Amino acid sequence: xxxxxxxxxxPNILYQVGDGMLxxxxxxxxxxxxxxxxxxxxxxxxxxxxxxFFDKIGVSSFNWGTSQQTHPQTQMVxxxxxxxxxxxxxxxxxxxxxxxxxxxxxxxxFLNAGEPFEVSFGDIWHFDNSIALINTYLIKYSxxxxxxxxxxxxxxxxxxxxxxxxxxxxxxxNPRNIPMLKWVPRENQLKAFEENLKLLKDLDIPVLLVxxxxxxxxxxxxxxxxxxxxxxxLLSYKEILEFDEIExxxxxxxxxxxxxxxxxxxxxxxxxxxxYLSKS
Length: 280
Description:
Helix content is 38%, strand content 9%. It is α/β, with parallel strands linked by helices.
């Protein structure tokens, strides 16, 4: 990095030297072609949907959830991966707060990852504090032009990682008293989300929206549910099952494996009962 910018500019850069989890998912997805089910969404997806459960019923799956993945980045996955692999079902995790985020950090991950997710300059200039993304863009492509190669295998957690899913066993030993939030979505996130649903419909791929549980509330949660319910079939595990704030979570909003067991068992039962996973 120092080949491109002096130290004074480095705090305003989101460039990652080496392979992160997104690059590992990209490599793994090339080895797992045409899975029956693909999971999309944020960290709530990659901490919540375990392919092992689907193995047990003879269904292949891959978890394409990434950290803070907002709907424009989900659209990139749909265009580059879903379109080519045509799964029988997409399970789209929809955490309320993702609709309110700028997506800057997630876009930086996709920018750093590179092919097939080639992010253009036009894709980044409109983000909040876009100077960090612009600097990251300049670093990325300057290194490429100069032939500076990144190190590899930055992310390597063989014990807890499996086909995009990350198994977290810790208990939430630091529960927080979070005041009720208000759901305030961004227009660009709503637009991208609705475009994503249309892309999947045009591909004739069924989609199931899933809200992974979280141990706090929104003042206007009814607004969120009213927005989602007409869009596609929706499962909200905050309402469907009971989860313990300490025993079933690893922090104040991600499930640990105790919670994953509860949710995935119900999800498999629901999908089987409603013929989502029937062989065609």
